[in-house]
Amino acid sequence: MTHGDDDGLRVPPAIAPQQVVILPMLRENESDGPLLAYCEQLRRLLAAQSAMGEPVRVLLDKKPGKAANKRWDWVRKGAPVILEVGGRDMENGVVSQLRRDRLWGESGKPDFTAPSREECAAAIGAVLAEIQQTLYAEARERRDTNITRGVTRMDELETFYAEEQRYPGWVEVQWSKPSGAALDKVVEQLKALKLTIRNVPMDAAPADGACIFTGEPAVERIYVARAY
Fold it and tell me: Which of the listed residues 95, 115, 144 is the one where a domain comes to its end?
């Protein structure tokens, strides 16, 4: 999925309710006070930054529970950036940073980095913008690789969808945009193949051929596909 994987959601930062989540590794004893104070200072530093023209949305998750369990809760919810902070991180003035778009390292373990608290805050706007662009590029590539072009005849369209493909995707065809009885005939042709017109791409190349349905000069390109 574009906005998900085997580990849960991957929410683009532009629409994520919480762009950064801070997870203090609480021990439910007197050591939690200084750690929470450190995390609150981190929250303020992050909230003072901006990303994509808006203040960074950051949450300090103070709920009790093991940090690893809380981390995976937020991974599944798709939080773009997760920051874990333990006692040793506080002593070293760093945070353990995990990006949702780079969840796993080559070792097969979560791909944490350890910037200083100040470095993390200074870079967060650029990090969120990069995650946004990465997810957008992946979504666009996924869309484009699922569009088949060059189909110009109804028999070719029928053959394409007759092949055993689990997810055949969309087919771009050219049509004359008929109306009335001619349009009803187009709908019947598509219905026979269990297809429907899905949309008209805004950035498609100009029509330059014949309508696949009527043989008349085409006026635009459309996508047809099968619903599942």
Answer: 144
Tally of residues, the chain:
228
Same domain assignment for residues 72 and 120: yes
Distance CA 194, CA 228 (A): 10
How large is the average pLDDT for residues 3-29? 93
pTM surpassing 0.70?
yes
- In this structure, the answer to whether residues 53 and 117 fall within a common structural domain is yes
49-83 pLDDT, tens per residue?
999 999 999 999 998 888 889 999 999 999 999 99
Same domain as 211, residue 136: no
Asked whether the beta carbons of 43 and 5 are under 8 A apart, the reply is no
pLDDT value, residue 1: 54
HSE-CB of 82 using CA atoms within 13 angstroms:
28
Q: Whole-angstrom Cα distance, residue 171 to residue 193?
A: 13
CB-CB contact of 173 with 212 (8 Å): yes
Domain count, the chain: 2
